[in-house]
Amino acid sequence: MVNIWRLTKLQLISTFGFNKALHTRDAKERRKLLLLSIAILLGVLMIAVFSFGYSYAMATAFEQIGRLDLLLAIMMAVTSVVGFFTTVYKAGGVLFSYKDYDLLMSLPVKTSHVVASRVLQLYVLNLFFTLMVMLPAGAVYALKVRPEAYYYLLFVPLLLCIPLIPIIAATVIGALISWFSSRFRASRMINLVLTLLFVIALILGSFTLDGNEPELADLGTGLAETIFKLYPLTELYVDAVSAYRIDAFLLFILLSVLAFVVFCTVLGTRYKAIHTGLTTSRAGGKYTMQPLKASTAFQALYRKELRRYFSSSNYVLNTGIGMVLLLIMSVSLLFTSPEQLGQLADIPQLQRYLNTLAPLFVSLFVALSCTTSSSISLEGNNLWILRSSPVPKHIILLSKVAVNLTITVPITVVSCVLLMISLGTGWADSLLLFMIPVIYACYTALMGIIVNLKLPKLEWTNEVQVVKQSAAVLVAMLLGFISLIIPAGLSFVLTSVDGRVIMLGAGIILAGLCAGMYRYLKNAGERLFLGL
Question: Considering the entire predicted model, what is its pTM?
Answer without folding.
Answer: 0.71
